[in-house]
Specification:
Elements lengths: L6 E6 L2 H9 L8 E3 L10 E2 L1 H4 L9 H7 L4 E3 L3 H16 L5 E5 L2 E5 L10 H16 L3 E6 L2 H8 L7 E3 L2 H10 L10 H9 L5 H5 L3 H8 L2 H8 L16 E12 L2 H21 L2 E12 L4 E7 L7 H14 L7 E13 L19
Parallel strand pairs: 2-4, 7-8
Antiparallel strand pairs: 1-6, 1-7, 2-3, 5-6, 9-12, 10-11, 10-12
């Protein structure tokens, strides 16, 4: 067991919704859902006031409204959220360069050796939370332990605006008493499967041999075997490799006209290409996604031998993939394009800066 590392997991509290409540006083203390509307869409984030009614992120907004008729829907402002996330990471980097972002609102920090020479990871976590609150008027929860799994688990124990610590000598007893659904990495479906097998707490999981866990849970059985023993040797990786870049749009009304779908797909391709250029990446695998009124998704992908380095090729191939999905048979609520199988790309070699979608024979 590696007990010498000092890992902090910082998780912002209801990040998107908290920013909206911070910036718009009339939303404070109210149940707020970012994204969607009463009739359609999906909740991107919910304030804690909304969560009391069972509203959660990724929930259809119509269901959120049924659960909480007084809920206030607000439009997403992702540019603002990204800017705030950047400011938070600047605070992290005051203490360590070993910062591994998981999303805009959470990250791991390895502070075993830190820039300020502070011996206590607990003290560092306190200072970071205070700086976030004082400079950005937002709250964060933190977990401190000797590995990533336990730090992540700890950060969920006292939300919102909490700080929890799992010391090496506490880990074994803590994990034995922890409900199985509270283990990070064990979702609701797996938790229900485990309960049917008699696994309700960590102590039950610990009794299972590795071979039996592999038989019942496949490759993740090994993960479960080690985490219940407090073993997680994964390092904090400051440069997480991005697996895909995408762009999508959800429509206020379902679209049944194929030519309209293609017009929107072109615009989505434009946004995606800007993100590809900004990320200095190119990819080989192109995917087009459509989502129907009942949230059923369909995708088509194509992998090329060479990197897609031209905007017109990306868009024209995306349109062909859309045709393969037979969109005329659907009422579409969402369209999206993504590129994966990514590689770094020298922008000086990009000869596509002058391409214009209008030059393509699209229809």
């Amino acid at each position: 067991m590696e007990s010498h590392r000092k890992i902090i997991h910082i998780d912002m509290d209801a990040f998107f919704a908290s920013i909206e409540q911070r910036d718009f006083p009339h939303l404070r203390g109210k149940p707020v859902a970012v994204g969607g509307s009463r009739e359609r869409g999906v909740v991107a984030a919910a304030s804690y006031e909304a969560r009391k009614f069972g509203v959660r992120s990724a929930m259809p907004s119509a269901l959120a409204y049924r659960k909480c008729p007084q809920i206030i829907f607000t439009k997403s402002r992702f540019n603002v959220y990204r800017d705030v996330s950047y400011q938070i990471r600047k605070i992290f980097f005051e203490y360590t360069d070993l910062v591994e972002p998981l999303s805009l609102d959470e990250a791991y920090l390895d502070v075993t050796e830190n820039k300020k020479g502070i011996r206590s990871a607990i003290q560092i976590a306190k200072e970071i939370r205070e700086k976030i609150n004082n400079t950005l008027n937002l709250t964060a929860s933190a977990g401190v332990s000797y590995n990533k799994f336990l730090a992540k688990t700890a950060s969920d124990l006292d939300k919102p605006d909490g700080l929890s610590v799992i010391l090496p000598e506490q880990a074994e007893e803590f994990l034995e008493q922890l409900s199985i659904e509270k283990f990070y990495g064990i979702g609701s479906v797996t938790a229900e499967k485990m309960k049917k097998l008699g696994i309700y707490k960590g102590k039950d999981l610990k009794e299972w041999p590795l071979s039996h866990l592999n038989d019942n849970f496949g490759k993740t059985g090994k993960f479960y075997y080690y985490i219940v023993r407090g073993i997680d040797n994964r390092k904090v990786k400051p440069h997480r490799e991005r697996k895909s870049i995408g762009a999508e749009r959800t429509f206020s009304k379902d679209i049944a006209n194929v030519e309209k779908m293609k017009e929107h797909l072109i615009r989505i391709g434009d946004i995606l290409w800007e993100r590809i250029i900004k990320g200095n990446k190119r990819g080989k695998t192109l995917t087009v996604k459509i989502k129907l009124h009942n949230f059923e998704s369909h995708t088509k992908s194509k992998t090329f031998e060479q990197l897609v380095t031209q905007k017109n090729k990306l868009v024209s191939e995306a349109l062909l993939l859309l045709d393969e999905l037979e969109p005329q048979t659907f009422n579409v609520r969402l369209l999206g394009i993504s590129i994966s199988n990514l590689q770094d790309f020298d922008s000086n070699d990009d000869n596509d800066s002058s391409d214009d979608f209008q030059q393509l024979e699209l229809f």
